[in-house]
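Structure in, sequence out. Go:
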């Protein structure tokens, strides 16, 4: 696990985009795991810039999204399919048939089989090369709420009141936020060959400190990344503020050999 502290979200997002660009240039058919929400917006904007200005090619890549709301029509403005179309897909040369996002309008009796099929689709693609993550204020990743099994796979989850409240700004009213989602499990996430977790703002500082320097526990799902051999936390100053070893993390990053940098 590597902790990288940058001056602001823009700098952290630019650095993260360079890691992704390096992967795509070395392995054009890479499989990317994608996240939604406000955290990755600057990252996606930088990837779009790299595509337009530096020719970064997505045409052979495959993407799998972490999660999606349930009980929403496919054309609802708050679906993550709509989010990805507006903030990345339509601006780069990803092939639509290579972009996978859980379905938002599944009937209940089909959810379990669909989740198994989503896992199989990831396996058929060769597994996820690089997974992008955000983190909730309570330490959740994807929609794996506190107490989620560290071995969990793609499945239905019930959102906590806190998570529903955090996501309310994306809906016309808080009452419209769904209670259920489909999400990759923590076990699924840990199988990605590389992970980039982004966290910005003081509201994430407690969760980041618990995830990086606290004990490994299902009550802080992101702490599971302590077990990952190639997980990077890309933080701004505010999100890193409660880490006790900030000086050490900065020293390690500053002393990296040039060949390790993207």
């Amino acid at each position: 696990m590597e902790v990288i502290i940058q001056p602001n979200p823009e700098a952290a997002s630019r650095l993260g985009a360079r890691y992704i660009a390096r992967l795509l240039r070395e392995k054009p058919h890479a499989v990317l795991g994608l996240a939604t929400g406000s955290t990755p917006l600057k990252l996606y904007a930088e990837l779009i810039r790299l595509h337009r200005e530096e020719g970064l090619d997505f045409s052979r890549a495959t993407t799998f999204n972490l999660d999606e709301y349930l009980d929403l029509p496919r054309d609802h403005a708050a679906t993550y399919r709509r989010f990805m179309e507006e903030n990345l897909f339509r601006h780069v040369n990803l092939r639509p048939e290579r972009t996978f996002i859980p379905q938002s309008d599944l009937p209940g009796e089909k959810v379990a089989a669909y989740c198994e099929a989503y896992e199989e689709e990831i396996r058929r693609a060769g597994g996820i090369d690089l997974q992008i993550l955000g983190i909730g204020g309570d330490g959740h990743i994807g929609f794996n709420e506190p107490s989620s099994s560290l071995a969990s796979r793609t499945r239905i989850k019930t959102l906590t009141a806190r998570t529903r409240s955090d996501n309310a700004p994306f809906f016309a009213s808080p009452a419209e936020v769904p209670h259920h989602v489909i999400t990759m499990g923590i076990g699924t996430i840990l199988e990605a060959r590389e992970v980039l977790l982004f966290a910005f703002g003081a509201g994430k500082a407690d969760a980041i400190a618990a995830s990086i320097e606290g004990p490994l526990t299902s009550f802080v799902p992101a702490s599971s990344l302590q077990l990952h051999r190639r997980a990077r936390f890309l933080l701004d100053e505010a999100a890193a503020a409660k880490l006790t070893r900030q000086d050490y993390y900065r020293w390690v990053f500053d002393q990296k050999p040039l060949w390790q940098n993207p």
